[in-house]
C-alpha cells in the first residue's frame, strides 16, 4: 500500500527591511518569532543574540531572547518589520578597524602632546592638569556590538571633553571609572525610556546615545543634561532635595563654563536650556547599587566585570597622574634652563 501524500505546508508572505533593502520571505504559517529570528540570523550569517526586530505599530522592539509566539498572530497586513543585525564577519571588521583607528589616534595624540609641551611648557596651569588627570572619566567604551561603535565613541569623548563638564568634575572632585552607552533595547517600557544610569556611585555611567530604532543619535543638549543628572548620583543615590539642588548647580556650572560656545550655544543648531522637559523619557530611577556590569565588545573589553572595570580605571588614573607629573618636571627643567641663558 502506498504512503499517503503529505499535506502541503501552508505559507505566508512577509517583507522585512534590512539595511535599506526589502527582503521578500515566504514562511510557514506556524512559524514563531523565535524561529524567524533564527532564520534571519542564518540568512545574514550572524549570531541570533545580535539580531533585533522593530515591528510597527506593535509589538515594537523585540530582541533576544525572542518570544515563542506565532509570527502571523503578532502581525497584520499593515505591519512593517525592520530587522537589525550585524554579521559576524562585519563585527570582526569593525573590531579590526577600531584597533587601527585607536593606533592612529594614539600616534596623533602623542605628536600633538609633544608639540603642546614645546609651546606651552612654561605657562601651563599644572594644578589644573593634575586635577583633570584625577577627576575625569578614566575609561571610555562604546557598545561595539551595535552599529558604528566609533561614532558612539566620538560622542562619548565629546561629552568627556566638554569644557563645562570638565570644569564641574574638577570642582566637585568627580571621578568616574567608565563612561559608556546604553543599549536602546534595555531599560525601555511602553511608559518611559531611561536616559541614563549611574552604577555604584560613579563606577560606571551609561547614557542612551542612540534613538530607539538604532538609526541615529539623540540630541547632544539632552544627553549632556542627562550626564549632569548622573554625575549628581556620585554623591546622592536617591532623588531627594539635596540631589536636585546639586543637579541644578552642576547644570548651571556646565553652562557657564562652556567657553567654546559662549556659555550658551553647544554646536550649530543646538542650544542648552535648563528648563527643557524630557516628556515621557525618565532620566533614571536612582543611583544603581550593587550587581555586576558587563561590557560586551572588542578584544580587550569583552565581558568586563565590575572589578576589572575598576582595576582598569585605577591603572588609567595612575598613568594620567604619572604623565602629568612628568610634564610638570620637564616644564620646570626647561624653564630653569632657559632662565640661565
From TrEMBL:
Residues 317-330 have a biased composition (Basic and acidic residues). Residues 128-319 form the WLM domain. It comes from the Eukaryota. InterPro entries: WLM_dom. Residues 312-341 are annotated as: Disordered. This is WLM domain-containing protein.
